[in-house]
Design goal:
Layout: H1 6-21, H2 30-37, H3 47-54, H4 58-61, H5 64-80, H6 91-108, H7 120-131, H8 135-151, H9 159-171, H10 176-189, H11 194-204, H12 209-228, H13 230-233, H14 236-239, H15 244-253, H16 260-267, H17 273-279
Length: about 280
Amino acid sequence: MSGKNKDMVTAEDQLNQALHNCNLDSMVSVEEVKRWMQDPNLEDKLIPIKMLTGLLDDPVVKQPESIEHLLNATIHLNQVISLPCFDGKTYTEELKKRDEQNITTQLENHQLSIPPRDWFKPYYKALQLMHQQQITKAQEKFDETFQKLLASKTSDPNIYRVFCNAGLGYLFSGKPYLGINCLITATMLNPNYTFAHEQLQKFEDGDFSHLIQLGLLTKMTDNMKQWEHPPNHLNLDKVMKWSEKKIVKKLSSFGISVDKNEFIRMAKTVNKPDDIAKKL
């Protein structure tokens, strides 16, 4: 492995394959991407992603799986490569260091005596999923976080961070309106929180356009896949347990208009559920 660790080799292989799948391997190499990331004058950490997505041609843009693979591979490499901004440490090493420092600070301030917070578990899981670039799953955990926050009040002074991180998760998972409102809320809760202001400015400058478009495209693709596999969407065993009202409402969502009384009358005359649709 010529002195490279296993994580680095894996990350390089993944990015090399992603570049090939997106028809970028003739224009840029893994080594060039690494040089972009390790540029000591790099202020915007999204520059490597912006440069790669800016090189994509129209046919590839219409392939969300290939783009998502490219983004994940680029971010994975960025996490395992040594970076000047972290004094030669990797992003993962720096994150671990900060976590350890944060725990030490909490111990010193006796903050760990606070009773467990129900919302913190899904929130921490959402951050982990964001770190792993599982944006859709992260968004679901942010949803759960806010559900628990609504169910029980909190006096945590750092709640503005929850809104900021959730805002980014929503932005990149196909919910830009919700994402922006979360970022705005973060700045309202803490007007001095520079990071949230910076993210809002990046959004206004169009820096997140490619990522937001990918999120929307991925969301649309996922929705389409639900209809490509109807047995997964409408499980007969589950439908049999629905009320008449719910079944009629679901049929209506498909554009099928059914009179409720006629539906009930017909249901009483058949032996098998499949026969209802045929008679209607």
